[in-house]
Amino acid sequence: MVESSEEKKRISESTIHRLSIYYRALSLLEKEKHETISSKELAKREKLTPAQVRKDLSFFGSFGTRGLGYNVVELKQKIAGILGINRQWRVALIGLGNIGSALVSYKEFVRQGFNIMKLFDNDQRKIGSNHKGIIVSDIKNLESELKEANIEIVIIAVPATVAQYIVDNVVEAGVKAILNFAPINLRVPPDVYLRNENMSMELEYLSFAMVNNHTPKRVKI
Amino acid sequence: MVESSEEKKRISESTIHRLSIYYRALSLLEKEKHETISSKELAKREKLTPAQVRKDLSFFGSFGTRGLGYNVVELKQKIAGILGINRQWRVALIGLGNIGSALVSYKEFVRQGFNIMKLFDNDQRKIGSNHKGIIVSDIKNLESELKEANIEIVIIAVPATVAQYIVDNVVEAGVKAILNFAPINLRVPPDVYLRNENMSMELEYLSFAMVNNHTPKRVKI
DNA sequence: TGTTTTATGTGAAATGGTTCACAAATAAAA
DNA sequence: TTTTATTTGTGAACCATTTCACATAAAACA
Ligand SMILES: NC(=O)c1ccc[n+]([C@@H]2O[C@H](COP(=O)([O-])OP(=O)(O)OC[C@H]3O[C@@H](n4cnc5c(N)ncnc54)[C@H](O)[C@@H]3O)[C@@H](O)[C@H]2O)c1
Ligand SMILES: NC(=O)c1ccc[n+]([C@@H]2O[C@H](COP(=O)([O-])OP(=O)(O)OC[C@H]3O[C@@H](n4cnc5c(N)ncnc54)[C@H](O)[C@@H]3O)[C@@H](O)[C@H]2O)c1
Fold this sequence. Notes:
Rossmann fold; 7-stranded mixed β-sheet; homodimer; DNA-binding; alpha/beta; globular; 3-stranded antiparallel β-sheet; binds nicotinamide-adenine-dinucleotide; disordered N terminus; Arc Repressor Mutant, subunit A
């Protein structure tokens, strides 16, 4: 079989994270009625370097105008396309406890096209109740309901002890992207994308920095 | 003044994050009654390489025994010392909304020595109320109460619109470490450590990965 | 006690990511 | 219209991190 002609560039994770940063900055610039922005100015705002901004963007195309900079609205749309947030994503959240309930109310997710459409829990008092217009489903029906609703991304907000078991079912249901809040190293097949949100880790970094007088190259994203 | 004889090695952020991972893994191994662990086995468990584990640890000393591996309890304590979590930290949380309330109930923080001792809000209905044994303070008294309670770390959980203003006051009160949940790029002086917890960014990574069939080098921590 | 096996600790090599520096393109000014 | 000022896009140089590979040391075993 002939190799696809499409170039498969290896984009670094840092570049992807910075695209998120550019997107957020451009949203603000749009609100502030800026028509164009130079890599220099954008870098200054986000404490990065102009070269970094240009190099990041150059992996995906030439979006600027020499002598002028980038059109704010246009670049924002380009980045949205690259990140895949110029569309709606169907998201389910499992575990409606402290953190799960907070996430359901997080408006930023919806604004970026991440729509929580299904909620699951195993607590009888929670099943059937209404959260932000969504009826909480019984975890027993996880697989069938995930499939039925065509869920593409699942957020895990259950205790660490049951997280692997839940994830196995989520994978079984064909979901390819998982955002995990449980402080545990989950096993998923190679074709499933997994990201972990670990808040203790960030506090531990602060602790380390204070104890060791750490001098970071720059503030973490 | 003579330069301190203490070596000031530049430890990478990735190394620090992996120390957190090792710590969590070792806690589990301790529970599972493992007496020793090799870099090979530890790496396998956390999907890292043995060389990586050894190199990370070697920045801080020689903690292992050739032919045997590392003593679980001993290494765990060493890492706790390196990360600065073999002590108690005095933490304050500002903004008792959705995410703030969830964080107050997060037991993992306490387990690692991060004790939330002060809560602040500007909502009259919340001020004076009791959350997990802590009376919510009026944001008006922020500076004086932060100083009085000797707060070392502040968690920001207020709307992005007011976050910079709040942070300015926190910095004014002499706090040197901030964990920020507001989706905004905060300005702090160079001697203040700032970490951002940005959940949209992780979802955006998943979105990017799915749209672009991204092949990461390895799963992000 | 001697031999074999296991596993650390660490320079050196390889890989990956960031910054430099400049040609090329366009805008702005003259 | 020509000149000057900006600013992009990108190889090349640089720097940081990861992996390799092996000398060294201790454990396990005979
Ligand atoms: N609270 C926080 O601020 C916070 C922060 C970061 C990470 N986390 C992590 O997020 C997870 C949830 O934390 P929490 O504080 O919200 O805990 P919680 O106990 O308040 O919530 C857990 C929820 O999961 C549900 N649940 C339990 N077992 C289940 C199952 N088998 N199937 C479906 N649902 C099930 C429970 O009914 C409950 O509603 C934990 O892993 C925790 O470590 C919490
Ligand atoms: N809800 C989530 O899951 C989530 C996730 C990630 C990040 N965040 C971010 O965390 C922040 C809080 O989000 P939320 O959903 O909890 O919002 P929220 O509105 O529920 O809570 C905000 C809290 O801050 C308080 N507050 C407002 N202004 C204040 C001031 N000047 N001084 C002191 N307190 C003040 C409010 O009274 C409220 O209690 C936002 O920046 C949000 O973007 C939220």
